[in-house]
Write a structure and sequence with these properties.
By secondary structure, the protein is an alpha/beta fold. It is about 35% helix and about 15% strand. The protein contains eleven helices and eleven strands. It is globular, with a radius of gyration of 22 Å.
């Protein structure tokens, strides 16, 4: 009789261990943080580079306009200048968006200030350039924090090297923005250092972390993943592979994270994302998304003019 009980006891012990392990993995799922980014109802309207389809990207003017439009989050990119200043600019060079040339890292802040950040923006395929010579400059992140301290910001670190993480962490603390930012980076080392230095700020998953979670989701093992981030930000497709699927959304939500999709510009695509149940949409045309959500109160044509916006500059 004792010999018969032994296999049963071993099996019961094994099952019990599996149940306990599963429970621990579920409990260890990091909860979504509280704060303006996550304490709300509905889908986040995230203005990509401040609404790059509507105004010159990553300029203080674009950010002010998007905030006045009623977006939930301002998305922006940051680089580091030659003299160590964190500025808001997407590319590693100034060639595409200004009247200058050269790498951001080879230019001082004073040299950047002399460039026209509205020089190349056009809404009609180059027939006109309405913001040339209008005084738009490349802003520092500190200037954006100072101008719009109440607006949540999605900040992507474009520069590499561990030093940028420390500079950004200090700047966030100096301006009291820890609860209003979501930090993004494709650079695993930069993100690891930022999380170490500024654990109070929310972060998005790195590309490597997204791949891991996506693969585990396909294997129905997403529950084994302990997320180091509060959000996952992905395109709908990566090459031919569709990333934003009902299964992946369920996997992300199962680990208590949000899923934000970029960059969605057509209304029909926005509607499809809303139907799927994503938590945020990053778009160059936040007016279209706000209209779809029934939250657009002021048409873009009725927004403050550039002159009016410049008058409110700090």
């Amino acid at each position: 009789m004792k010999m018969r009980k032994r296999p049963f006891l071993l099996l019961a012990s094994l099952v019990g261990s599996v149940v306990v392990a599963y429970g621990l993995l579920v409990v260890r799922a990091r909860p979504i943080r509280s704060g303006p980014l996550f304490d709300r109802d509905g889908v986040l309207a995230i203005a990509h580079r401040g609404g790059a389809g509507l105004w010159p990207e990553n300029t203080l003017y674009a950010f002010r306009q998007a905030a006045a439009l009623g977006v939930d989050v301002l998305e922006m990119d940051v680089q580091v200048t030659k003299d160590g200043e964190i500025v808001v600019l997407h590319d590693s060079t100034v060639d595409r968006t200004t009247n200058g040339t050269g790498a951001v890292g080879d230019l001082t802040l004073a040299e950047l200030r002399r460039l026209d950040a509205g020089y190349t923006w056009t809404a009609d395929d180059g027939q006109s350039f309405p913001y040339r010579g209008r005084g738009l400059t490349v802003p520092t992140l500190a200037e954006v924090f100072t101008a719009l301290p109440e607006v949540p910001m999605n900040i992507e670190i474009k520069s590499s090297g561990p030093a940028v993480a420390g500079r950004l962490a200090q700047l966030i603390r100096d301006h009291g923005m820890s609860g209003r930012v979501l930090i993004v980076s494709f650079d695993v080392d930069v993100m690891r250092e930022f999380r170490r230095l500024c654990p109070e700020a929310a972060t998005a998953a790195t590309e490597a972390e997204v791949r891991t979670l996506y693969t585990l989701g396909l294997l129905r093992l997403g529950w084994t993943y302990r997320p180091p981030a509060q959000a996952v930000q992905v395109p709908e497709y990566h090459g031919p592979r569709r990333v934003v699927t009902p299964r992946f959304i369920a996997t992300v939500h199962g680990r208590n994270m949000e899923i934000h999709v970029w960059t969605v510009n057509e209304t029909r695509d926005m509607h499809r994302m809303l139907t799927l149940g994503v938590d945020g949409i990053v778009t160059d045309y936040p007016d279209r998304l706000l209209a779809l959500l029934g939250r657009l109160e002021t048409p873009v044509g009725s927004m403050p003019s550039l002159a009016e916006s410049m008058d409110r500059s700090p």
